[in-house]
Structures are given as C-alpha cells and as structure tokens.
Amino acid sequence: QVTLKESGPGILQPSQTLSLTCTFSGFSLSTYGMGVGWIRQPSGKGLEWLANIWWDDDKYYNPSLKNRLTISKDTSNNQAFLKITNVDTADTATYYCARFTIAAIGVMDAWGQGASVTVSS
Amino acid sequence: DVVLTQSPATLSVTPGERISLSCRASESVDTYLHWYQQKPNESPRLLIKYASQSISGIPSRFSGSGSGTDFTLSINGVELEDLSIYYCQQGNSLPYTFGAGTKLELK
After folding, report:
1. To the nearest whole angstrom, how far is the Cα of B4 from the nearest Cα of chain A?
2. What's the mean pLDDT when you consider all of chain A?
3. pLDDT tens, B8-24?
4. What residues of B are in contact with residue A64 (Cβ under 8 Å)?
5. Which residues in B lie closer than 8 A to residue A46 (C-beta atoms)?
6. Among A47, A63, A114, whose Cβ lies nearest the Cβ of B98?
7. Do the chains contact at B98 and A105, CB–CB below 8 Å?
C-alpha cells in the first residue's frame, strides 16, 4: 500500500524560506521509475503542479516558480523535500506530495493528505 | 503552458442520472489527460488515466473518453458520494496543468 504524508511549518513570515517534507511508504525513490512531485492548492482554488524528482535524481520545476524552488530526496529515509524561497502571502496554500511512475508519465496515482501553510506577518 | 478549460463550472445533479463533464485543451495532449476527484476537505484521488483507462478500486460508473483537445468524464448513475469537485490534468508536456474543476452539487 502506497502512502504519503506531508509536513511543514504551518505558518511563516513573508520573505522566509518554506521547507516541506514528504514521508512515504510502499515504494522507494531508489527504485527505477519512481518519482515524487509537489502540488499546491490555495483555499477554495485549483491545483498547481510545482516540481518532480525522479529515482535517478532528475528534477523538473514549474517555470512560473522555478527560481524559488528546490526539490530533493533522501532515499534512505523515504523522504522528499521542497523548499520555496522568499515566500509571500500568495504562497499560502495546502501543499500535497504525490507519487509519479515512469510507467504512467504525468499521472499522480497516490496523494498525501496535504500540509496547510500560511504566510502572514 | 497548456490551458485546460472545464465546463460547466458547477453542475446540479439528481441521484441516479447520467452526467458528462467536459475538459478542453488549448492544444493537443493526445490521450495524456487524467481525471481526479476531490471530496470536501480531502486530497485529490485519481479516477481515470490516459483519457479512458480505468483505475483499480474506482467504481465502474466512472468512465472517460476523448483524445486530442476534447475530453469527457461520464458518471453513469450519480450517487450522493460523488458530490465532489472533478479536475482534469494534462501530462503531455511540462509544466503539468490542471483545469479549474467542475463542482457537482445536489439539485
């Protein structure tokens, strides 16, 4: 059974760096074809894909935020991470991590429960 | 970026009826079009992949069709538990993009 769970700071101030962790089970990011991505959703609004990281350490970012995003992984602890620099109120959202597989490129076949992040002074 | 336009934005439904939701892409995405269901206060769940491929554990009343730029999600016999927001998403090109969603509400 594939499960993912996000964790984050809850609240942070404008200009700070947001650090998110995705802890998963049921698959490994050291296995060929596995990937983890991040997607966010402001309250009452739609979904925005942010970034992906793959088993071979390939990384892809949404160009709209690329300069502010860094995705990474710790395969030994089954975790993936996302950092967003210089946050502002527009980054207030629920942040989800999801599993991707090379067998179904672009398909987010399992999602975490989400981590709520509020940016406020 | 590929823009996905979903219609209608809101659909009022009666349990038992057959409904169709539309997703139109600004350029061809072949069949790299996926559908997700998001119930209130829950995370999204994959419903249909590659336009028409079913997903294990998803009720058979959900089906998808289409290719290129026009896609449809159908529910054959809506149930109360289907009252959710439905999103389409394209995986043909980066950045992956989502439609704005169609909300199913009770008539």
Report:
1. 12
2. 97
3. 999 999 999 999 999 99
4. 95
5. 87, 98-101
6. A47
7. no
pLDDT at A105: 87
The beta strands (E) that lie in A1-121 are given as: 3-7, 11-12, 18-25, 34-41, 48-54, 59-61, 69-74, 79-84, 93-101, 110-111, 115-119
Residue A66 has pLDDT above 80, yes or no: no
pLDDT for B78 equals 98
Tell me the average pLDDT across A68-78.
97
pLDDT digits 0-9 by tens, B38-95: 999 999 999 999 999 999 999 999 999 999 999 999 999 999 999 999 999 999 999 9
The DSSP bridge partners found for residue B72 are: B22, B65
Which residues numbered 77-96 in A keep a CB inside 8 Å of some CB on B? 96
Nearest CA in chain A to B101: A46
> How many residue pairs bridge chain A and chain B with CB atoms within 8 Å of each other?
54
Instruction: Pick from B36, B84, B89, B96 the residue to mutate for testing the A interface (most A CBs within 10 Å).
Output: B96
A110, burial (CB in 10 Å: exposed 0-12, middle 13-18, buried 19+): buried
Nearest to A51 by CA among A96, A111, A14, A1: A96
Within 10 angstroms of residue A69's Cβ, the number of other Cβ atoms is 18
Phi and psi angles of residue A90, each rounded to the nearest 5 degrees, phi first: -70, -15
